[in-house]
Amino acid sequence: MHALLRDLLPGPVITDGAWGTQLQAQGLAAGECPDGWNLTQPARVETVARAYVEAGSQVILTNTFGANRLRLAAHGLGNQAAGINRAGAQISRRAAGSRARVFASIGPTGKMLALGETNEAELREVFAEQANALAAEGVDALLLETFSDLGEIRPALAAAKATGLPVVVSLVFDSGPARDRTMMGTTPEQAVAALVEAGADALGANCGRGIEGYIPICRRLRAATDRPLWIKPNAGLPEVVDGRAVYRTSPEQFAARVPDLIAAGATFVGGCCGSSPAFIAAMIRRLASGGRK
Amino acid sequence: MLPSYPPDDMHDFSKLQEAVLAGNSAAAVAAARQALSEGADPLDLVLHGISPAMAEVGRLFEAGDYFVPELLISARATKEVFVLIRPLLAKQGAQPTGRVVLGTVQGDLHDIGKNLVAALLEGGGFEVIDLGVSVSPEKFIAAVADKKAQIVGLSALLTTTLPAMKTTLDAFRSAGLRDRVKVMIGGAPVTQSFADTIGADGYGENAASAVQLARRLVGV
Lengths: 293, 220
What we know:
Order of helices and strands of chain A: HEHHHEHHEHEHEHEHEEEHEH
Distance between the termini of chain B: 21 Å
Strand order of the largest sheet of chain B: 2-1-3-4-5
Number of strands of chain A: 10
Largest sheet of chain B: 5 strands, parallel
Strand order of the largest sheet of chain A: 1-10-7-6-5-4-3-2
Oligomer: heterodimer
Strand content of chain A: 15-25%
Order of helices and strands of chain B: HHHHEHEHEHEHEH
């Protein structure tokens, strides 16, 4: 196991919450490229990163989820991938100081291999560019998050591992009648087998479900592997009120189930869409008050 | 179960249907060629061969037996058959089931869901005019008017771009075109109550139900 992960274990390690909604609170417009803000609005991005450190996050991410060349190209920023990633890593490292670790976020390209919209060689190149830029700024680990397609994960994971950093891989399990598979039909057990084989240092699940839904998924992941598990559920599922998305789960409701998530085997726990620094603070209060199992 | 086609006087399309269900493009094209060489009518081939098979693919997807990869390879098999028969249909003057203008709304760059809907609609015999991502209300309106589409389909993945669905619908109203086109919406954050609120004609929970909805909206 990577020394870094060993230092953080056995956990539980509290990670961070959503960035997109926090950036919007800082003035990011709908449809605007969040990652581009690393170059144009670094102070506002740092405000978000700092809010998670202040709330007690032991691990924070970077504002680089969509900072791969293919996704940036849709915003006309395709040739700025390296700079956007480097700036994103610098911002989070500044905010973290010595108080938190920085795991750099890498998201999917949004292109489907099965439709021939991209290919493995291109993906390998695109993810290598992003991973190398993030690694060059001294982040502690790389996180491949919100992936659904093992075919896209393989070149991404190979590129991430080539940096020598520990790599966490997190999938969305939100499909199928039991909502326990990825969009591509992969079960937690199949994901573990494929990701362990491909060399993921830790793995897990994020987005697409609330904490309720990810407790049994976490249990199944734990039954299939002894690697550290990374879990970031949404704050419930959004309801649309007056044309705006509202997440109904409160920080306290979310935090109340965190001990169950840890009992199910989660090592790293945080929140995805709809969560905020208040969720992190509530989780820490809950664990400090004896919720730790 | 596949519908128990054909009636006595119609060609047996079961081989074609099996190939579509299995996502086997080569076998689907071969079966279509064979059917045509045996005198099958191209329109029958669509209505009683491909459409029921793709409806079954949609059902399996909804039931959770098929996932995105299975859906995509079946859609691809269908597309290849259409390459073969589209010229024949045109020669007959056959009309598509309906014409649908599709796009992801302004500010939203996600297109996986929209692409799945497009693939399934084409499999269902619809002509699809795909405008791509981050489509402005003006572009939707121009395409609907230009192509005489009966349906416009709006997609969004981001909760932040949902308001653009309402903006687009309002633009159709202002342009005096709202009554001339049916509007269907879909995407992860979209719900029936949101569809009702903004006055859309229908909402599809997933790509497969979008096809059923489109058929209902054009009255077939």
